[in-house]
Every structure is written in C-alpha cells, then in structure tokens.
C-alpha cells in the first residue's frame, strides 16, 4: 500500500516557511503522498451557532494553489485533494488547472480522468470534444485502486492503527492515508510520523 498524509489545510497555518518545512519533513519521513481538503467560502459565525462547521472566521487554503506550492517545495510525493467543491467552480477551468498542476509537478497529481478529449452534455455545462492545452507529463495512467483513511489522535492505541491497516490491506486497499488531530501543525506532523513508523511495516507486506 502507498501511505499518504491528509490534513485539513486550516491546520497548517499561513506561514509559508513553516508549511514548506512541514511538508518537506513529511516527504523526508517516507510518505508517498500528501492530500488536502477544500472550503471555498464560510458564512457568518452567527449562522452556524451550535454547529461544528467552517465559518468566515476559519481560514482555508485554496487546494489547487496550495498543492502547487507543495509541488514546488517537494520532489516526489503524490498530490491529491480529498475534497474539491466543483459546484462553486467553473468545471472546464478546474480541469485545465489540474492538468497544468500535473504537468508542472512532473506528473505527481493523482488523476481520475486521462481521456484525450471529452464531450459532455448537462444542465449547466456542455462540452464537445475538448481538451485543456497542458500536456501529460509523460506518466502512464495508473489504476485507481482502493483508497482508505484512518483518523488518529495523540492518545490512540498504536495497536489500533496496526489492526486497521491490516484490515484495509486484506480488503485490497492500494492507498492508505492518515488524518491526524492535534493542537497545531508541528504536533500534527509528529503524530503523522509516528503513525508512519507504526503502520509502514504493514504496508510493505501488502
């Protein structure tokens, strides 16, 4: 199994130097990929009183720009979004942005569509045999495989991580990523590295 680090990008803060150091640490530790999430806008906190949701006071990095930054400061990790809110974006532009990110990262964006041309007829969008200008970076399209995720906290039992990883491996998972909860980006990365050290041997036996 390929092992990835997944984080809500609000947890990484806004200091680009810190972010560069942390994602570099994840790559150096041996993670195969890094993925992030997405929230385009947030409402006024009074609208969400009593609910655990993102509001206008919660900063969230734009995922494609964020992954472009990560691509620029790393060398080999696969890049992905766990969430990308297409209804709040122009579909064709998103496709071209993803193709460009894949191109300029040397083929590291995890892709789910590799057709040369696309046609589509829908209520809001119509496309007739179109393609973005960015070319493939020379990577052969990979099988999608099966991706699973494990959520972790600092007080988790390490045996639980191993048990879950073994279960996903036996189910045929090809990708396994960790979501870590912590007080700040440094604590989260330390927890992710601890998870990698614990689960890594399980992945190698897949």
Distance between the termini: 6 Å
What string, H for helix and E for strand, traces the elements in order? EHEHEHEEEHEH
Using the CA coordinates, give the radius of gyration. Answer: 18 Å
Q: What is the domain total for the residues?
A: 2
The helix content, as a percent range, equals 25-40%
Strand content: 15-25%
Largest sheet: 5 strands, parallel
Number of strands: 7
Uncertain ranges? 137-143
Distinct helical segment count? 5
> So what's the oligomer here?
single chain
Q: Mean pLDDT across all residues, rounded?
A: 81
Structural class: alpha/beta
Spatial order of the strands in the main sheet?
3-2-1-7-6
Shape: globular
Structural description of this entry:
Helix 2 packs parallel to helix 3 (91-104) and helix 4 (158-170) packs across helix 5. The chain has five helices and seven strands; from the N terminus they run E-H-E-H-E-H-E-E-E-H-E-H. The chain is globular, with a radius of gyration of 18 Å. The longest helix has 20 residues, at 185-204. The chain has helices spanning 16-29, 63-73, 91-104, 158-170, 185-204, and strands at 2-6, 33-36, 78-81, 118-121, 126-130, 147-152, 175-180. It starts with a strand and ends with a helix. The protein folds into two domains: 2-89 and 143-204; 90-139, no CATH class. It has 206 residues and is an alpha/beta fold. The chain has a five-stranded parallel beta sheet with strand order 3-2-1-7-6, covered by helices on one side. Strands 4-5 form a two-stranded antiparallel sheet. The protein is 35% helix and 17% strand.
